[in-house]
């Protein structure tokens, strides 16, 4: 079992989780983070660090998110240090259908 980042992260991108990860398995896209499921050691220390509950254990209902985390962790850059959340993060907390509205595949701005 691994942990996955869900659509709750989109347009928020809090990085508190990154700071506590012992294996640096987080990757950063333009408007969300993902976890590489092959690198995650299932320790769960990231889960309570996420202020919006965007990290959940792998499950049947999260197969889409497991696949998305795997795919984008292969192309997005690794992130190991905490950064500021997105400027309008609080506005998007709890918003529904964030994937359909805002997900961006491209790499973050350099």
Automatic annotation (TrEMBL):
Superkingdom per UniProt: Bacteria
Domain 4Fe-4S ferredoxin-type: 1-30, 31-60
Cofactor: [3Fe-4S] cluster; [4Fe-4S] cluster
Pfam families: DUF3470, Fer4, Fer4_4
Keywords, comma-separated and alphabetical: 3Fe-4S, 4Fe-4S, Electron transport, Iron, Iron-sulfur, Metal-binding, Repeat, Transport
PANTHER family, alphabetized: FERREDOXIN, OXIDOREDUCTASE
Protein purpose: Ferredoxins are iron-sulfur proteins that transfer electrons in a wide variety of metabolic reactions.
NCBIfam families named in the record: FdxA_Protbact
Protein name according to UniProt: Ferredoxin
């Amino acid at each position: 079992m691994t942990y996955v980042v869900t659509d709750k992260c989109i347009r928020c991108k809090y990085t508190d989780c990154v700071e506590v990860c012992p294996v640096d398995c987080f990757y950063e896209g333009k408007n969300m983070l993902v976890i590489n499921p092959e690198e995650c050691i299932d320790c769960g220390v990231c889960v309570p660090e996420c202020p919006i509950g965007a990290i959940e254990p792998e499950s049947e209902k999260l197969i889409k998110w497991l696949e998305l985390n795997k795919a984008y962790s292969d192309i997005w850059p690794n992130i190991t240090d905490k950064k500021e959340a997105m400027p309008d993060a609080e506005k998007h907390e709890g918003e529904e259908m964030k994937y359909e509205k805002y997900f961006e595949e491209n790499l973050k701005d350099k």
